[in-house]
Amino acid sequence: MVKKSKLNRSEFSNNVKPSYNSKFSNNVKPPYNSKFSIDLYSLQFSQASYKDFVITGEFTDNIGNSLIKLDNTYPVKLEFTATNAKLGYYLKGKIFYKLQGQCSRCLAGLTDKTIINEFTAFFTEQNNKNEDCETYQLWGNIINLEPIIFDTVGSNIDYNPICGEGCKGLCSNCGVNLNTSFEHNC
């Protein structure tokens, strides 16, 4: 039985299926070769019950739509703390990424700035719901961070981006950008 996440992944992916399946799916294969997979085995036996991580890599799945999407040419960076909980691992941290796209009103390119979002997640082998954060599949001591990237970026993208509050858009008759054409009379 497949549990559905809060987000409908097909809305965010331009009909490109991610390289992983839904949470708690019976046919999910462990992500042993993913660049966003971490083995937390050593966390079980350390004196501290938590460990800080910084992971940077290219995320190749498409997240977004025709106006705005994750910039796949810029690496995604995750800074987080993993805490050993009794039934799994609790993660709390930040994700850094860039978007590429254009204004939905005037079609001008959007500025290239780094976006920072916070996330919390719980990884478990059991089908436990955690109301404080998203729950993801744990394979032994291995966690895959790709679903966190997908869910965090996908839920924080503004799918009708504008270049500024005062954007005038395009002329409905001739298509001229009204932000750059001050004496436009159509």
Topology (elements, then pairings):
Blueprint: H1 9-12, E1 37-39, H2 41-45, E2 50-57, E3 68-70, E4 76-85, E5 88-101, E6 114-124, E7 134-137, E8 142-144, H3 146-156
Parallel strand pairs: 6-7
Antiparallel strand pairs: 1-8, 2-4, 3-5, 4-5, 5-6
- Catalogue the unreliable spans: 1-28
Please give the share of residues in helix. 10-25%
Largest sheet: 6 strands, mixed
Shape: elongated
Which range does the strand content fall in?
25-35%
Computed over alpha carbons, the radius of gyration is 20 Å
Distance between the termini: 59 Å
Question: What's the count of strands?
Answer: 8
Helix/strand-derived class?
Answer: mainly beta
Give the topology string: H per helix, E per strand. Answer: HEHEEEEEEEH
Number of domains: 1
User: Oligomeric status of the shown chains?
Assistant: single chain
Determine the number of helices (DSSP H or I, runs of at least 4 residues): 3
Let me know the average pLDDT: 79
How would you characterize the overall build of this protein?
This protein is mainly β and 186 residues long. It has one domain. It is built from three helices and eight strands. The strands form two sheets. Strands 2, 3, 4, 5, 6 and 7 form a six-stranded mixed beta sheet that branches. It is elongated and about 70 Å long. The model is unreliable at 1-28 (pLDDT under 50).
